[in-house]
Amino acid sequence: MFEGLGQQALIHLFVNVMFLAITWWALQAFKFDLFVKEPNSPKAKALMILVTIAIAQLVSSFFLDYYNASTMLRYLW
């Protein structure tokens, strides 16, 4: 019973970290300095980190919900 929970926890951690890295990498191409006064300030860096976390959370949540729904399809019949 608990083995499945441990596997789900590992999948969730891996997916969250993977999408966090992908989001950070993708946002590096974004011209962030056009929207902030001082692009090299600690506030701008903190905003970049928070935007990265927010987008990664949304994307990983969608992916994990889709994965969970697709695994439940076997109980349809």
TrEMBL record:
Which keywords fit this entry according to its UniProt record? Membrane, Transmembrane, Transmembrane helix
In which domain of life is the source organism classified?
Bacteria
Which residue windows are transmembrane per the record?
A: 9-27, 47-67
Under InterPro entries, the record lists: DUF1146
Q: Which NCBIfam families match?
A: int_mem_ywzB
Q: What is this protein called?
A: DUF1146 family protein
Q: Which organism is it from?
A: Alkalihalophilus sp. As8PL
